[in-house]
Every structure is written in structure tokens, then in C-alpha cells.
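Hi W.,

Here's what went into the run:
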Amino acid sequence: DAGVIQSPRHEVTEMGQEVTLRCKPISGHNSLFWYRQTMMRGLELLIYFNNNVPIDDSGMPEDRFSAKMPNASFSTLKIQPSEPRDSAVYFCASSSDPGQPQHFGDGTRLSIL
Amino acid sequence: GNSVTQMEGPVTLSEEAFLTINCTYTATGYPSLFWYVQYPGEGLQLLLKATKADDKGSNKGFEATYRKETTSFHLEKGSVQVSDSAVYFCALILSSGSARQLTFGSGTQLTVLP
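Here's what came out:
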């Protein structure tokens, strides 16, 4: 079975540019999560969706970050404008229910110059 | 609120040594407990879980027992291998309530030397 698929795997761009990260959850999973991982702050939950509806976005750092889930098989995390401090690895995860174990994608390594 | 406290790393062991990574938690209800493992360049993978007190989760030679009296879920392995080198995360989810999010510990880096 295909796992959680994220794209791109790596992204390098200049500050001020718009960045869009993509995620395809496991088919049949109703919950989707976006995380950010850095050495300084560890793993942080940014936002999670249940049945395509954002449930908790309290982890989104600021208005430059936005996330959408237009359908059950696709989600995006957008940063506009990007800043060097946004450099991190961004993970998407999905689960069959918010209370069930999550399956993680391999992440997008983002570098903002 | 809910929190997970993990033994700070990094931890360096020789192959075939015994491993313990301590994990304690604070939760307002009755959580399910998990250990995740992250290999270099990859996402987190579920290693094992326990959903109620005294349950023992096990996988790939790793074990952890849900201890309600000490609010702990320590990870153990009797004989580690070089391939076990990774970052290990303890986590919990509350079994009730609307805030069903994983709460992660800070992670423990394990390096196993040949």
C-alpha cells in the first residue's frame, strides 16, 4: 500500500518567494496533520484536519502560513512570503481517526535563503 | 495540559548493549502511549503502542510497558544493533475528548557503534 506521499522532497528558494508543500494522505484516512521539525524546537504540530475540515490551527506560526484540504486525497501547506527562519523539515501525517496512530510521509526539507 | 518528558540524548551504545530510553507523561485523562522511530532522512514510523495500563507494546525486539502508577512508558531493547541508530520519540494521545492530538516528547538520538 502507498504511504503518505509528500512533494517536493527538497525545496530551496529565496526569501520572499511563495512556497507550496503538497501531501497525499493514505486512502481512507480521515485525519491529516502538518508538522514542522527543527533542531531548536523539535517536532511541532502546525494544523490538523478531520474529514477535510481544519480542526486546530493554533500551531500555525503566523499569517504567512496557510493550509488547505480541498478533498480527502490532497492537502497543501503554503508559506507566503517565506523567510529564512521557516527553514525546516515539514512532515505530513494521516490517520484513520484523530485518536489512532499516525502514518508519516518522508517530509519536505525546506531551505529559505 | 498534556506533556511527555523524554530522557535527553544523545545516547551512544556499543552493538549488543542493553538499551533503556526513559519516558514519563502528564495527562488529564487516560492516554494511549506510543513510541515512534525516525531514521535519518525519513519520517516518523510507529514502533509500538499501548492503550491501557499494564499493556506491553513490542516490535522488532523493542518493548515498553504502560505504567500508570509511575506515569511511565520506558523503551527497552536487550541487544541493540547498528541499524537501530535513529531518533526515538515517545508520544501520547488522550482516549477521550476533542483534542485528540499526538503530544510528542523531544526525541532521543541513539547511536549504536559496531
